[in-house]
Write a structure and sequence with these properties.
Rossmann fold, alpha/beta, binds adenosine-5'-diphosphate, about 35% helix, four-stranded antiparallel sheet, 2 domains
């Protein structure tokens, strides 16, 4: 099933145009939605999750009109918001059971089987008797995924899921997400380029409410191939270089800035660099491509 977003617009009461003619087609698998803070990602996620209305435009998921038929969408949706809210002292097992009751799973035995299955899927079965409030950030996010999978959703939306996770937890979370992505549509909203690089085949980049790129991660890299150059410089030279070149990024490697610039041919002192999704991201945000 495909999710088709067409010319979506949203302006908040304070005048911020958070979504500006957003159009995207998203199929099965993990779709990465990249953008800096304030780009409009959460506004889009909340609209797709039926938590907020758009001013105009349409969204269809298969045959379902997402903006009108909210009830049907909710039966097909799993949503992990940025803030999962309060974490009660209740055990993971009890809380998941309770959330399943709220989602309409009234047959006790079936519910128990589902809760056990989900806890196992997110590697929390051993910890099922522990209070969710005692969980680490990574465990909470995995619990969040378990609750979002109640009822076998066809559309899963996760908003900034890996913020604050250590590398081990992040990997565990990635593995669970990519497994889910084999069966259903998963939209992963993030400002962490690495999340998208590691997980997603298809992606979009948003900036100031607009989609500035959508396509495969490979196509995104092809777009800038051969036009990214790098050079290690002294910290004191950063400003001068920035004045004369289209700097995409600057990061410290071994204490010295490694600068990536965008150009048609290698500027003096620069060597070709292997292009990364991060370069695409910054090149797009700076209108270089
Ligand atoms: P992102 O998730 O990419 O950080 P958001 O969708 O949260 O972006 O925000 C997009 C823009 O809309 C930002 O400028 C933000 O300040 C603004 N915004 C978000 N929610 C509201 C709201 N409820 N009322 C007013 N402005 C909002």
């Amino acid at each position: 099933m495909q999710l088709v977003v067409d010319s979506l617009n949203k302006r908040y009461a304070n005048g911020v145009h958070a979504l500006s003619n957003v159009s995207l087609t998203i199929g099965r698998g993990l779709f990465g939605l990249l953008g800096p803070n304030g780009a409009g990602k959460s506004s889009l996620m909340r609209t797709l999750a039926t938590l907020q209305d758009a001013d105009s435009g349409s969204v269809r998921f298969g045959d379902v009109d997402v903006l009108k038929d909210k009830h049907t969408v909710r039966t097909m949706l799993g949503y992990l918001p940025q803030e999962f809210g309060v974490y009660p002292k209740t055990s993971a097992e009890e809380l998941l059971n309770h959330l399943a009751v709220l989602k309409g799973f009234t047959v006790r035995r079936e519910r128990k089987a589902m809760v056990d299955y989900l806890l196992d899927k997110v590697n929390l079965f051993e910890k099922r008797k522990h209070a969710v409030s005692s969980f680490s950030g990574g465990m909470r996010q995995r619990f969040g995924i378990a609750q979002c999978l109640i009822g076998d959703p066809k559309l899963v939306i996760v908003d900034e899921p890996t913020a604050g996770l250590d590398p081990g937890e992040r990997n565990r979370f990635y593995n669970i997400l990519s497994e889910i992505g084999e069966q259903v549509v998963v939209i992963l909203s993030t400002h962490i380029v690495q999340d998208v690089r590691e997980l997603c085949n298809e992606m979009a980049i948003m900036d100031r409410g607009m989609v500035v790129y959508s396509g495969t991660t490979d196509e995104a890299l092809t777009m800038i191939r051969g036009r990214v150059f790098e050079r290690r410089i002294e910290k004191s030279d950063v400003d001068t270089i920035s004045q004369h070149h289209a700097v995409i990024s600057s990061k410290l490697v071994g204490g010295k800035p490694l600068i990536h610039v965008f150009a048609d041919a290698a500027p003096s002192g620069f060597v070709p660099a292997e292009e990364t999704l991060e370069d695409v991201f910054f090149a797009k945000l700076n209108n270089l491509v």
